[in-house]
Amino acid sequence: MDLRIEGKVALVTAASKGLGKAVATQLASEGANVIICSRNLESLQKAKSEITKKTNTVVSVIACDVTNEKQVKQMIDSIIDEFGTIDILVTNAGGPPAGGFSDFNVEDYRKAVELNLLSTVSLCQKVVPLMQKQKWGRIVMMTSVSVKQPIANLILSNTARTGVIGFMKSLSNEVAKDGITVNSICPGYTKTQRIENLAEAFTNSRKGTIEDFYKKLEAEIPMKRIGSPEEFAQSVAFLVSEGAGYITGVSLKVDGGFAKGLF
Ligand code: NAP
Q: Is residue 15 part of a domain?
């Protein structure tokens, strides 16, 4: 299937590692002009050379903390200066720390909301007007399968990410008439640094070994395996394609069947 995104300008945030990097790699291999950001310039440069090696294309890198509105504005302005617009926006950020109700205070919740919800709002506020002007755009908000089924010991993530779904659906209704689709993609357990961090938190809390952690996860997944960043990235690539132009306002799980509800 030809995704018809060749030459489109695609910004993928929080993409020096893991799922974001896999998405950037996939979009670059489909011929998009990809810009990636994260907080650490060194890891961005490393990601850039890995993506170039894999796809034979050059991606642009910008150091930006997506929770910092000023930095987000500077990033968008510099993309407009260089590329003129943004056609595809894939929003992503790091995940909040693991823990349950008694582990966190209100400030921790505030930080989680800033990281996962407000960063998404701030990116969209700056990018949507560009898409409205050109009457075409694709926005995919990376969340988590926790928006369908809360995950034990991830209360901050479970709480902050559901707000993204309310925002996504509301925005999708408002901008559909402008040729913009807005969707969310919800990864289940996928093999990245984030999962390794959760495995470490599990062993640190003396609940068992690393092997116990992975066995426990795999037992909960009908496919009996953790997903790969590449298969996640291919789903995002479909949602931003020309052919997905009539899909908007959905939250697509890429979770090997982990969430057991009907929707
Ligand atoms: P990861 O491997 O830890 O990578 C996180 C990326 O986000 C890094 O590139 C990091 O780079 C960047 N980042 C973190 N905070 C940032 C910020 N404030 N501004 C800009 N960039 C930032 O994580 P992942 O597994 O790819 O997960 C990506 C997202 O999906 C996370 O929110 C995670 O919680 C969620 N998720 C993951 C899974 C999974 O199984 N992997 C499942 C469900 C949901 P810098 O450190 O350089 O900023």
A: yes
Residue 130 is encoded by which pair of tokens? 């560009």
Tokens read off for 259: 């969430």
Please say if the pLDDT value at position 172 is more than 90: yes
The verdict on residue 206 lying in a domain is no
Q: Does residue 213 lie in a domain region? A: no
Question: Residue 190: pLDDT above 90?
Answer: yes
Q: Is the CB of 193 under 6 A from ligand 1?
A: yes
Q: Is residue 231 part of a domain?
A: yes
Percent of the chain's residues with pLDDT above 70: 100
Site of tokens 């993609």: 185
Rounded to the nearest angstrom, the distance between the alpha carbon of 92 and the centre of ligand 1 is 7
Containing domain of residue 186, as a range? 9-191+227-254
List the CATH number of the domain containing 152: 3.40.50.720
User: What's the whole-model pTM score?
Assistant: 0.97
Query: Which residues in the chain belong to E strands, given as ranges?
Result: 9-12, 33-38, 60-63, 88-91, 137-142, 180-187, 251-254
For the Cβ of 158 lying below 6 angstroms from any atom of ligand 1, the answer is: no
Decide: helix, strand or coil at residue 181: strand
Ligand 1 lined by 117 (C-beta under 6 Å) = no
The residue to mutate among 12, 25, 39, having the most atoms of ligand 1 within 8 angstroms of its beta carbon, is 39
Predicted confidence at residue 19, as pLDDT, reads 98
Of all protein residues, the one whose alpha carbon is nearest to atom 11 of ligand 1 is 38
Q: What is the pLDDT of residues 22-71, one digit of tens each?
A: 999 999 999 999 999 999 999 999 999 999 999 999 999 999 999 999 99
